[in-house]
Amino acid sequence: MKRPFLFLFVMALLCSASHFSLANDGYNLWLQYQKIESPTLLPEYQKQAGHIFIPGKNATSDVIEKELRTALEAMLEIAPQFTTTPKQETTLFIGTREQLPAFTLKAINIPWEKLGTEGFSIQSINQNSQKALIITGNSDVALLYGTFEFLKLLQTQQDISTVDLTSIPKTNIRVLNHWDNPDRTVERGYAGASIWDWHRLPGHVKPQYVDYARANASIGINGTVLTNVNANAQVLTPYFLKKVATLADTFRPYGIKVYLTARFSAPIEIGGLDTADPLHPEVQKWWTEKVNEIYEYVPDFGGFLVKADSEGQPGPQNYDRTQAEGANMLAKALQPHEGIVMWRAFVYSNETPDDRAKQAYNEFKPLDGKFEDNVLVQVKNGPIDFQPREPFHPLFGAMPETPLMMEFQITQEYLGQGTHLVFLGSLFEEVLDTDTYAKGPGSTVAKVVEGSLDQHALSGMAGVSNIGTDRNWTGHLFGQANWYAFGRLAWNPDESAADIAKEWLKMTFSNDEKFIRKGKSIMLQSHEAAVNYMTPLGLHHIMGWSHHYGPGPWVTDKHRDDWTSTYYHQASEDGIGFDRTASGSNALSQYAPEVQQQYENLETCPEKYLLWFHHLPWNYEMKSGHSLWDEIALHYQKGVHQTEQMITDWKSIKTHVDDQRYQQVLDFLQIQHHEAKWWRDACLLYFQQFSQMPLPEGVTQPEFSLDHYRQYTPLFVPGI
Ligand code: BDP
What we know:
By secondary structure, the chain is of the alpha/beta class. It has helices spanning 3-17, 41-49, 59-76, 102-107, 112-115, 140-155, 207-218, 238-251, 266-269, 281-297, 323-334, 356-364, 424-433, 445-450, 479-491, 497-508, 513-534, 565-569, 593-600, 610-613, 628-652, 659-691, 706-711, and strands at residues 51-53, 81-83, 92-94, 120-127, 130-137, 164-167, 173-177, 223-225, 257-261, 303-306, 340-344, 375-380, 404-409, 460-464. Helix 16 packs across helix 17, helix 17 runs antiparallel to helix 21 (628-652) and helix 21 (628-652) packs antiparallel against helix 22. The chain is globular. Bound molecules: beta-D-glucopyranuronic acid. Residues 187-188, 229-230, 307, 311, 346, 385-386, 413 line the site of beta-D-glucopyranuronic acid.
């Protein structure tokens, strides 16, 4: 190499190694493992983590060792020594009850029974006048979870000298749902192509699969549904199963099981039968054999996720059978292998003229208690479809005999897709904390989902993934926070969104206090901001046709009414909003009496749900004293202001973020601000046709005419 080039090469190396490197593409997610700079914490951590006892010798303990090596070298600049027999200098012990040396067991106090198979404890003890730290649990995977927690303590710069913590997951199935198709397109995916490179599997195992498993394990996710709910039967053929087996082998050391979506008509499409009737013995036999075959490829296969009788998908209704009959057929085939069925409640009909918000309840409520024990009914958080804000789904609390699994959407189909910063921790928390009153006050959605309200052995949470081939995994850097928040809330639905935001910021960017304060403020107001500039005061489903990007309150006259905007906002000269009280669709009757009373009464209905449940005149007087029209307009304006504030806040913490990630977030915030104005102007001009009222003071006059917005059609929007 010639001299000037050598110089440049060395400079480039130095830059990439320095703390504030110019290039950080976000690939390492929240596992950044930045060097600990604190002069007090660094020596303490170095002392604690220098000599590690880890007796297990298997794929998971290898993973633990590797993670510790990577993390400690980066954070503490030490090369930790590992030993399988305790030594005098050992200060960190990682083992199950059977593996830990007797003297450590005497010093700790662990609720072994309660830990189950996945819970873990981390305790600090005094040993030979030095501190020792014990990470323990009842399984290798529990030790892995404990190790990630330990690393998090360092990443977030906690005092570990007196640590005594126990963490037990409150749900047992914590899965990502990938809406990934075999051709690598991702339905509602905004971060590139599918990470599953089916064509090159099983021959090539991308390093990204391993990092995917690491990231998920670090937040307690223990399952992945590899394929789209709009399912392709081919994924159940040996051609694909070989590929699935390779992914399962890769994920196994990280405690992650694979699941597949089962297309209900698979017996016809790939089985050569002429029916898929769940009560037909040939169909039952076909599924039993298919399931047995899958377990030959994947001995710990998790089970199936099924979308049936919804948006054109085949299902038991095709044979006049119930959802329970459909689910139970698959459940029985899976029972000998301890597999489960996650049967989606997202069922609504083209032909039923009833309010779409009511249909899942009408279909499923009568089936309570009729499902096999290994079936979970998977319910979206709200009764329509992942809108910026929805009240909780009325099925939560209404099916005490059936374990209900939460389905959140991490990918931001209706929340700015790949360009808007919207921290979904706040949305998830709002839903989980809501009281269903199913068994009196305190019967929160979280308790239903945890299974604690009705003592269910099975419980779970699913998140529709936002992951793709983009280098930073999620397109928007802050999309990573939504993946993170999902995992943390699936583990513990009672966790606070603010705490999650804080720890994510620390692990991903910096522990600096000012940075955290501003970063948190951006994140915690971002969901409300999006609701304000998209669908304030209970408005919903008014986005662009089909691709769902941007505003489309004018969408009308399509082949089904309940896919149009005019069906949902009902705007006319006399007012706006969907009447779901007794004088309207009466969807409110599906909730417990306490909820009904609260929401039907205009005095007590939270204004954030007002137009979800009520149709009101434009001059209706709001609590603020403003007319409804003014209040709507002011909310849109506020949303735009909030996006401006987010930009100002982000700029103020520039010095704490590396250039690459800083710039990407800034660019996206600017797109978001621009689009917030687009939403405001398009919606206000459209609704103004009916209200016939001027924009109140403080609301900016729209830049263009309504026609301009109506005619603007975004092209090639991803993720359709
Ligand atoms: C809607 C999406 C559609 C999904 C459907 C579902 O627009 O792409 O297939 O939900 O959840 O939100 O099945």
